[in-house]
Each structure stands twice: as C-alpha cells, then as structure tokens.
Structure to design on (75 residues):
C-alpha cells in the first residue's frame, strides 16, 4: 500500500491510498478527504438535516480542540 497527501487546504486534508494485489497485480486507488468544520458549521448542518442539538461538549481527550455533538432527530 502506498499513501500520498493531496492538496492540503485550510479546511481539510486529502489522501490517496494505492493497493497492489500480489495475486494478480491488480491496482486499486482510493481517494478520500477529511474536512475540518467549526462548531457553527456543524450545528447548522445538523439542524438543516432534521436534528436538534441537545448539547456540545469538549472531546474528553482533546478539550478545547474538538467537539462532541449530542443531537436528536427532530420529530
């Protein structure tokens, strides 16, 4: 497996992983993007998709750096 970073952006990070199968030499490439969003953007997205934000906490292992959102499907 080979890994490559793709187009670093302030709001996210891309990665490409390439797998080569020894049995037949087939190659599969997977591109993925990890997006970093601020608290307001996540809350807005949750509400827009039918959720009610009950609570926002600090992540226990990264206080002040990550959030845990407790949300419930609006009825």
């Amino acid at each position: 497996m080979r890994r490559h970073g793709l187009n670093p952006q302030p709001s996210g990070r891309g990665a490409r992983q390439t797998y080569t199968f020894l049995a037949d030499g087939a190659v599969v490439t997977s591109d993925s993007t990890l997006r970093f969003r601020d608290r307001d953007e996540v809350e807005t997205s949750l509400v827009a998709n039918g959720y009610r934000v009950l609570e926002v906490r600090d992540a226990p292992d990264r206080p002040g750096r990550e959030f845990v959102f407790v949300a419930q499907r609006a009825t």
Summary: Residues 39-48 form the longest helix (10 residues). Strands lie at 2-9, 12-20, 27-35, 51-58, 67-73. DSSP finds one helix and five strands in the chain. The chain has a mean pLDDT of 87.
